[in-house]
Each structure stands twice: as C-alpha cells, then as structure tokens.
Write a structure and sequence with these properties.
Blueprint (H helix, E strand, L loop, with lengths): L4 E7 H4 L2 H10 L1 H8 L2 H4 L11 H8 L4 H5 L6 H19 L4 E7 L8 H15 L4 E5 L8 H7 L2 E3 L4 H6 L1 H5 L7 E5 L9 H9 L4 H9 L4 E5 L11
Parallel strand pairs: 1-2, 1-4, 2-3, 4-5, 5-6
Helix pairs in contact: 2-3
C-alpha cells in the first residue's frame, strides 16, 4: 500500500546554519560575523574559513552541542522546503489524492533536548514553514536509518553531509534498496578539494563536480546536489 503521506527527512543541521553557530561558539563573534556576510562563505567549496582549515573545523564541528544550536540561524533551505510542501499539496489536490507532506525532524546528534525544548523547536519551525505542515520529531543516528525505515517513511531526504549515511548502508545502496528515495545535499567537497590532476579531469568533462557525483550514484540512489547557499544562514542584508 502506498504511503498516505509525503515524508520529508530533515536534520536540524539543514534548517539551522550550525556551521556558523559552531564558528561563533569556538572561534568568536568576529569570525562568525565576517563569514555571515562573506561571498566566499556563501559560495564555498569546502568547510574552511579564513585561517581555519577544514580539518580544524571538523574537529570542533563533530563536537557540536545544544549551545551550537542556540548560536545558529535559520537557513535558506526553509524557503526551499516550504515551496516543496506547497508543490506536494498542489499536485495532490490536482490528482485528488489523500497525501500530505510530513516533516521528520531529526535531532541527532544533539543530546539532552527536553520535551519542552522539542515543542519549542516544532513551534518555531511551524511558523517558519508558514503553512500547516505536520512535524514529527525523531532522534536517529545514520545506522538506524536503514532502508526499511527510510523507504517506509520518506520520499525525499535532506542531509548536509550524506557521505556517512551512504557509507553506513553501502551494501543496501549498491543493492538499489534506496532507489525510490531522492537525497538532497549541498554541492561541497566534504573530504577536501580535489588535487590538480583530478580537478583537470573534472574540467575536461564540461560538467560540474556535483553533476558527476549525481551521475556516479544514479544507478543506486537519486542524489541531487543543490547550491551550498541553501544551507547557509538566511540573513537579510
């Protein structure tokens, strides 16, 4: 039986710019403000910032916590998801189907979030999405997001770093068990910029590196890499 809902998987790290929050928390207000208004931040190719290397940032980002959330600002992805929900409702209405968008908000890896705080997060995001959309709170690491759970609940997934998820479930991904899911992520090099030789090979294809990634995974799972700026703080200048 087909799902009666259109499931949208959404981690907190996608709706809040925890990269910026982490910079503020660990490197001070000056660098976070500088990055927030920087064109380089908006179009970065990897998570390195000013004098902070990708490796240095990863060390502190892997330790992000509730205080990081408190220092973070809503991302532009909220607008993208709002439009997605409206599109789903329009298509459903036109086809006279009974299928409503439901957002599965994953709190992981943030710990010790109380029930009261969970309700605050839900109400805040409900206001951000503007339209009545059901939000379900989950708290699940990548290893628990197996294909049975994912394909039973989600139609699309958003992840800031989808690499660990694919690596964790690589056998099921290669067996095409996630093939019905569309996975959205940012166009960014999570494992460092390509070396000169690799970069030259990419250029010769006349395609973006993100398109090449999508093509390389297309037989197993549909991946859509969108502009990194969607995952950045939505700051009105």
């Amino acid at each position: 039986m087909p799902n009666k809902t259109y499931g949208i998987y959404l981690p907190l790290d996608c709706v809040l710019d925890t990269r910026l929050g982490c910079l503020y928390q660990n490197f001070g207000e000056s660098i976070s403000v500088q990055m927030a208004v920087s064109k380089k931040y908006a179009s970065r190719k990897e998570d390195s910032f000013a004098h902070i290397t990708r490796e240095q940032f990863k060390q502190v980002y892997d330790k992000r916590d509730k205080q990081t959330l408190a220092n973070s600002i809503s991302t532009k992805l909220i607008d993208y998801i709002r439009e997605t929900c409206l599109s789903v409702k329009y298509r459903v209405s036109a086809a006279q189907e009974n299928k409503d968008p439901v957002i599965f908000l994953n709190l992981y890896p943030y710990k010790d979030i109380s029930e009261e705080e969970r309700e605050v997060i839900k109400k805040y995001l409900s206001m951000q999405f503007a339209n009545p959309v059901e939000i379900k709170i989950i708290d699940m690491p990548d290893r628990e997001l197996n294909y049975l759970y994912v394909t039973s609940n989600f139609d699309i997934m958003f992840m800031y770093d989808y690499g660990p998820f694919i690596d964790t479930h690589i056998k099921d991904v290669e067996s095409k068990k996630f093939q019905k899911i569309t996975l959205f992520g940012p166009g960014i090099f999570h494992n460092g910029l390509p070396d000169k030789e690799t970069d030259e090979k990419i250029r010769k294809t006349n395609m973006s590196p993100w398109k090449l990634v999508e093509i390389s995974l297309s037989a197993a799972i549909e991946v859509r890499l969108i502009d990194i700026d969607f995952f950045n703080a939505n700051i009105v200048s």
